[in-house]
Amino acid sequence: MLTAAIGLAIAPVATGQTVLILGGTVSGGAASLEATKAMDAGMSVEVVDDAGWLAKTEADFSTYRALILGDATCISINASVLAAESNAATWAAAASGNIIIMGSDPEFHASQGGEAYTESGIDFALADADNTGAYITLSCYYHGVAPNTPVPLLDGFAPGGFTVKGVGCFNDAHIVASHPAMDPLTDVLLSNWGCSVHEAFDMWPDVGLSPFLVLAIAENAGGEFTAADGSVGTPYILARGEDLSVISDITLTPEESLGLALGSECCLTATVTEDDVPLMGETVHFEIIAGPQSPQSADIVTDVNGEAVFCYSGFVEGVDTIVASFEDSGGTTQSSNQAVCEFIAECHLVIGSDSGSSGAWQPDYHVFHPQVGQVQESHPVLMDDIPAFPLPSGVSAVATVSAIGVAPHWVPITTSGVPLPDWMADDMLFSVEVVMWNPVALPATPELDSPTLVVAVTPNGRVRTSLTGSGAIDIWAETYTDADGQRWIRFPFQVPGF
Fold first, then answer.
1. Does the chain have fewer CB atoms within 10 Å around its N or its C terminus?
2. What is the per-residue pLDDT across 180-228, written as a single tens digit (0 to 9) for each?
3. What is the model's pTM?
4. How far apart, in Å, do the first and last CA atoms of the chain sit?
């Protein structure tokens, strides 16, 4: 059942300087601790009931500076939480700014450090002025649950990507990441609440382009997570956003290298310091911990500037996550922030049944509109690395049963016995095109394509081609015969200026 309205909308219309609070997740509505701290930060506050929350679209949510799902004083999952779960994909899609999630009940512990956390957490959510942030607590929703319990409230950020476990009441908190808005917080302020931690994360999106970092752990409570500073514990506060960094004496730059062409290099620099002094002669261990190029690692020694450079090439599309580490003078292994290298197939060979618009076709990173009819097959390609396809050498009669009895059905065959692709075997007429997307090398005109090459193949493997349409990329057909007598066809191409 939907709850009744429980608070006044201080600003009835979102202004870009308004935060939105789901009333049933706080205590006191417009007078709640969360609302008070938002107003202290210069925001107007709008409090809605469950029906008001559910009525909003992604566009509505994106007009707010922050969305708040707070702590209604250590409660179990209620109707308001279920409402937020039911449209998690909608509001989370709007939360493209700073996000902070706590596995505890700071309002209940306001006098023990919870008020300080609420203030810093909301300040963090508001710190990205151009995007909608989110301040979320899990209150006591999952106190006592088994390990790996799903958190559907967070599915909008990563479906099935968050799980938690109840941990009793850990009290030794340790901050392992930093942000200017969080500077007032200390381990002391987060510790000794009587129950500082109600639920801890055992799974969260921790690699890739938009990972959540662990902001604080219950130190020495479980050994499943080792923080960048070498401390060990159980994660219970997660965050992501701009200017958020791990606390460590080793940094890795650049944090993002995006849109790299397949076959190119990604180079990363680790800088090692102690008391802000660069350390020469330190062995840095680089490791690709996730992504299509993993596992891969290297050990490189720092130079006089305390820097070690790691370069590698990417030959498979996707996003790699890299971390660097070293052993400090105290014998503790410290880790860097994560860095990501994204490799994209700047060129794709797309194959369709015939010519004509295929509509939208989308690999992971861009929407193309090739002119090959329905796309039946695609391949990432380089100008010096293109696939080849078998050509037929004749036909064979295969008996088939039809309405008028047994009749021969002629199918093309190959010399080697390699089957023909379906798009070739169907009617021996197909179209190919090369499409390209490279905003790094071609920022003014990142998308290029070729004319459509229409290919007709006879049963004995003869090939006729014609070009239709226009495009900046040159494409043609090339046939050859291998040592076993099998004939093949491939489609070389040339991108101007490359």
1. N
2. 998 999 999 999 998 899 999 999 999 888 899 999 999 887 777 999 9
3. 0.71
4. 63
What are the pLDDT digits (tens) for 86-136?
999 999 999 999 999 999 999 999 899 999 999 999 999 999 999 999 999
pLDDT tens per residue, range 337-352: 999 999 876 788 999 8
Cis amide leading into 254 (omega within 30):
yes
Q: What is the dihedral of CA 184, 188, 192, 193, to 10 degrees?
A: -10
The Cα–Cα gap between 110 and 28 comes to 14
Encoded tokens for 267: 């180079």
- What one-letter code names the amino acid at 110? A
Is the bond leading into 211 cis (omega within 30 degrees of zero)? no
Strands 339-344 and 256-261, bridge-based pairing: parallel
CA-closest candidate to residue 301, choices 293, 310, 289, 312: 310
d(CA 457, CA 413): 13
Which three-class secondary structure state does DSSP give residue 477?
coil
Tally of CB atoms within 10 A around 59: 10
By CB atoms closer than 10 A (0-12, 13-18, 19+), residue 398 is: exposed
- Domain coordinates in residue numbering, the chain: 18-246, 250-344, 347-494
pLDDT of residue 411: 56
What does the alpha-carbon distance between residue 216 and residue 238 come to, in Å, rounded to a whole number?
7
Q: Within a 13 Å sphere around the CA of 1, how many CA atoms are in the beta-carbon half?
A: 3
Sole residue written with tokens 């370069």 = 311
Task: Please give the Cα distance from 210 to 459 (Å, whole number).
Answer: 51
Contacts of 417 (CB under 8 A, 6+ apart): none
Q: What percent of the chain has pLDDT over 90?
A: 64
Total number of residues shown for the chain:
498
Structure tokens at 161: 């990507």
CA gap 102, 106 in Å, rounded: 9
Cα 480 off chain centre by: 42
Distance, in Å, from the CA atom of 466 to the CA atom of 476, rounded to the nearest integer, reads 9
